[in-house]
Amino acid sequence: MQEMLMLLLSLIALSAVNGQTFHFGSCPKPPVQNNFELSKYLGTWYEIEKLPACFEKGNCVQATYSLNEDATIKVLNQEVLPNGKTHSIEGTAVSRNLEEPAKLGVSFSFFQPYSPYWVLSTDYESHSLVYSCSNVLGIFYVDFAWILARTRTLPAENVTQLRDVFTSFNIDITKMTQTDQTNCPNFM
Ligand SMILES: *[C@@H]1O[C@H](CO)[C@@H](O)[C@H](O)[C@H]1NC(C)=O
């Protein structure tokens, strides 16, 4: 029991250090995009806002999705680091639940388990709301959220509307921050 408590405390400390957001209880279960069509979702999405994630400190963050030959999805994340260098990382996304195709999983390493990548709402042509939540020991959860767009910026009123969607699903986005998408290079 004491080991359990120690483990829990260190996990909380770790997530706090990483700037992640954790909450007691279990993950909210928001609805996802109806009739999600992966083929229309492929292509490049720009990060407008995110719920803090320490592994993405850069600006000009973008993600490009394309199909691999084995029908998994190739994920190419690109950004400009604070030192001005461009950085990219490749991963794989899979859709494992045919009944809920909007619930994808993404992994950036062979050794890393797939993290949830749920498309809560998208019109495929302008915006996408993505949510990722993991329960830890049935005691607390750590979550991430992204507002993505097909353009590097969105009108402020659209961002407000999109934020309201998360909130209406009981997702706490008070720690959401805007991603700097100015003076961005054309990534290859
Ligand atoms: C902004 O919101 C309006 C109203 O919902 C919509 O018609 C328009 O397409 C949106 N613009 C973008 C770039 O998403």
UniProtKB/TrEMBL annotation:
<keyword id="KW-0732">Signal</keyword>
<dbReference type="GO" id="GO:0000302">
    <property type="term" value="P:response to reactive oxygen species"/>
</dbReference>
<keyword id="KW-0873">Pyrrolidone carboxylic acid</keyword>
<dbReference type="GO" id="GO:0005737">
    <property type="term" value="C:cytoplasm"/>
</dbReference>
<keyword id="KW-1015">Disulfide bond</keyword>
<dbReference type="InterPro" id="IPR022271">
    <property type="entry name" value="Lipocalin_ApoD"/>
</dbReference>
<dbReference type="GO" id="GO:0006869">
    <property type="term" value="P:lipid transport"/>
</dbReference>
<dbReference type="GO" id="GO:0007420">
    <property type="term" value="P:brain development"/>
</dbReference>
<feature type="domain" description="Lipocalin/cytosolic fatty-acid binding">
    <location>
        <begin position="37"/>
        <end position="180"/>
    </location>
</feature>
<dbReference type="GO" id="GO:0006629">
    <property type="term" value="P:lipid metabolic process"/>
</dbReference>
<feature type="binding site">
    <location>
        <position position="112"/>
    </location>
    <ligand>
        <name>substrate</name>
    </ligand>
</feature>
<feature type="signal peptide">
    <location>
        <begin position="1"/>
        <end position="19"/>
    </location>
</feature>
<dbReference type="InterPro" id="IPR026222">
    <property type="entry name" value="ApoD_vertbrte"/>
</dbReference>
<keyword id="KW-0813">Transport</keyword>
<dbReference type="InterPro" id="IPR002969">
    <property type="entry name" value="ApolipopD"/>
</dbReference>
<dbReference type="InterPro" id="IPR022272">
    <property type="entry name" value="Lipocalin_CS"/>
</dbReference>
<dbReference type="Pfam" id="PF08212">
    <property type="entry name" value="Lipocalin_2"/>
</dbReference>
<dbReference type="InterPro" id="IPR012674">
    <property type="entry name" value="Calycin"/>
</dbReference>
<keyword id="KW-0325">Glycoprotein</keyword>
<dbReference type="GO" id="GO:0005576">
    <property type="term" value="C:extracellular region"/>
</dbReference>
<dbReference type="GO" id="GO:0042246">
    <property type="term" value="P:tissue regeneration"/>
</dbReference>
<dbReference type="InterPro" id="IPR000566">
    <property type="entry name" value="Lipocln_cytosolic_FA-bd_dom"/>
</dbReference>
<keyword id="KW-0446">Lipid-binding</keyword>
<protein>
    <recommendedName>
        <fullName>Apolipoprotein D</fullName>
    </recommendedName>
</protein>
<dbReference type="GO" id="GO:0008289">
    <property type="term" value="F:lipid binding"/>
</dbReference>
<keyword id="KW-0964">Secreted</keyword>
<comment type="similarity">
    <text>Belongs to the calycin superfamily. Lipocalin family.</text>
</comment>
